[in-house]
């Protein structure tokens, strides 16, 4: 079991607290089958002729940063290499600030653990060298809007997937700023906190309104030859229909279930779908 990043510094008044869906992401990415798949796609080759470029791992909607921090701290176990770059986006400025601290702290803790077990940069096995995973930035932005086409090697998305009558609007810059400061009244703070928390779970019709926008962006933002996306869905999101739709995309796209929280009344309660060009 790889250690889960510390989130004790995070105030969950406006940020989604890690739960079953978050931990399913950690379990899926670090599972023997999925890490083997990712090793084959991204593992570092010491030969200067065949060395693969450093992967850019982007989490959309980072929340506390627990998933991105886990990937950054355990990049060698997941990808077979230490030199990955991480970047996060979230519409909540507080989540971006929390993510930055979570990722940096997780990487530093991994480095301390490596040092305490006698691993060093001089070890001949590249797997024994210290983590070299810089966190580029945590951007306050809507989904993939700040990303260049074809730049993302690994995209992670734990969306607001609960079916709701309405989809919350995006917060304004002023609301993000005020949420990061002391509110003038208790009622104003409660209203603000409730609004930001609704952004973490309310998915609109079939819980898919935000996810559909993300899916539409995947063919453009993923790196053409090795890009892969992981998207979490619940049973009400109709994952089989989602995968059928992806199979119909032009360009030979594939989708399959990479992780599951188990069965409930004959349904997969939560699943993580891997999406890539076949």
Characterization of this structure:
The chain is an alpha/beta fold. The protein has a single domain (20-46, 56-161, 209-277), classed as Vaccinia Virus protein VP39 (Rossmann fold), CATH 3.40.50.150. It has nine helices and nine strands. The strands form two sheets. Strands 3-2-1-4-5-9-6 form a seven-stranded mixed beta sheet, with helices on both faces. It has a two-stranded antiparallel ribbon with strand order 7-8. Helix 1 (20-30) runs parallel beside helix 3 and helix 3 (66-73) runs parallel beside helix 5 (93-116). The chain is globular, with a radius of gyration of 19 Å. The model is unreliable at 120-128 (pLDDT under 50).
Write the layout of secondary structure elements.
Layout: H1 20-30, H2 32-42, E1 56-60, H3 66-73, H4 75-79, E2 85-90, H5 93-116, E3 135-140, E4 154-157, H6 173-179, H7 186-201, H8 209-221, E5 228-234, H9 239-247, E6 253-260, E7 263-264, E8 267-268, E9 270-277
Parallel strand pairs: 1-2, 1-4, 2-3, 4-5
Antiparallel strand pairs: 5-9, 6-9, 7-8
């Amino acid at each position: 079991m790889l250690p889960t990043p510390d989130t004790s510094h995070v105030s969950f008044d406006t940020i989604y607290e890690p739960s079953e869906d978050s931990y399913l992401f950690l379990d899926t990415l670090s599972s023997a089958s999925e890490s083997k798949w990712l090793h084959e796609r991204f593992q570092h080759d010491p030969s200067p002729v065949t060395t693969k470029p450093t992967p850019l791992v982007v989490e959309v909607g980072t929340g506390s940063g627990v998933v991105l921090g886990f990937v950054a701290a355990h990049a060698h176990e997941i990808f077979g290499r230490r030199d990955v770059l991480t970047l996060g986006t979230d519409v909540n400025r507080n989540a971006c600030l929390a993510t930055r601290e979570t990722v940096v702290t997780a990487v530093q803790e991994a480095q301390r653990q490596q040092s305490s077990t006698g691993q060093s940069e001089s070890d001949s096995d590249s797997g024994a060298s210290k983590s070299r995973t810089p966190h580029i930035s945590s951007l306050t932005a809507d989904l993939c809007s700040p990303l260049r086409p074809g730049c993302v090697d690994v995209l992670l998305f734990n969306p607001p997937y609960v079916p709701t009558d309405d989809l919350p609007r995006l917060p304004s810059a002023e609301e993000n700023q005020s949420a990061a400061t002391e509110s003038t009244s208790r009622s104003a703070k409660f209203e603000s906190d409730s609004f930001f928390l609704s952004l973490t779970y309310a998915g609109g019709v079939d819980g898919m309104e935000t996810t559909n926008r993300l899916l539409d962006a995947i063919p453009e933002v993923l790196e053409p030859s090795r890009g892969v996306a992981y998207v979490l869905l619940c049973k009400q999101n109709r994952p089989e229909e989602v995968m059928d739709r992806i199979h119909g995309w032009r360009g030979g796209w594939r989708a399959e279930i990479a992780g599951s929280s188990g069965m409930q009344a004959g349904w997969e309660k939560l699943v993580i779908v891997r999406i890539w060009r076949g």
